Amino acid sequence: MILGHTKQQAMFKRLATTGRLSHAYIFSGIDGIGKRTFAMELARGLLCSDGKFFEPCDCPMCKLVLRDQQESDTRRVEREADKKGENKGKKLRFCPDLYLLDEPDDLRIESIRDIIGDLSVSSYGNDWRVVVLDNAHDMGVEAANAFLKTLEEPSGETLFMLVSSQPDRLLPTIRSRCLNLDFEPLDKNTLLMVLRKVKINVNEVLLDYAGGSVSRIQLLRQLDFTGLKASIDTNSIEGLAKSIFSADSLDKLADVLAVLLPCYMSRYKSTLDVRYVSLVSYLETMVQTLKTNVNLNLASLGIFTKIAETLK
User: Fold this and answer.
1) Residue 110 belongs to domain spanning
2) What is the per-residue pLDDT across 284-298, written as a single tens digit (0 to 9) for each?
3) According to the model, what pLDDT value does residue 182 have?
4) Residues 27, 141 within the same domain
5) Which residues contact 157 (CB under 8 A, 6 or more apart)?
């Protein structure tokens, strides 16, 4: 069951039942709002033996899709717990007509070529095969070019769903062959329902600064947001340093900035201190700069130095 995104649910149910689905979509939006979950639910509906969309079903194909999703979720938790961000053992596949590419190795050219070869044969169940690429923007140039050929000449009833929080990093030629669908952040009530479903308890402050994202909630908890906000409110450099330099990747540093930005915007509104205007503008620019593969250590140092010098 999907919480939120009701307009997208209604649209895809209508397109699927009237036979008007496009062959490729980009699901774009910030992390942690359910884009991948939505893609998997749409895949389940297309492959469902009983033709049920976005509603519970116990048919054999739906059970296989669910097992694929459970396997993926388990391995994602395993990667997050591993110091190197790696999995042990080979990923299992259960539904023969579903291709879920959601691990770093899945987006390499060898994996893309394997998928292309598999798609050239007939489907096992109904007419559909579904390919879901999570974090599709992480495809290398060679893999992206190989994938592009498949988009240009799709085989049979195949649906491609590219899930991305950074669709601008996809090749322009890939973007031009897909329909882009923007997913909005979850409203506060829906976010709270999602968190209750996964048994995560949060206070009102975290909800206010989560930006409608489950991933952001998890980040706020990891950063000890109560302490971080206190550092921001008191201009304490030590607390900020811990948050900024704890980021071990550009994506995580961008996440930290996504937390700092609304905090400094709030500080400006409450104090009318013009220093926060230039600081917010700088941080917004850095969010975009971090997408260009800059050096992590230099970026972290630059951000910390800018904040320290602005607020001293």
Assistant:
1) 6-182
2) 999 889 888 789 999
3) 95
4) yes
5) 123, 127, 128, 129
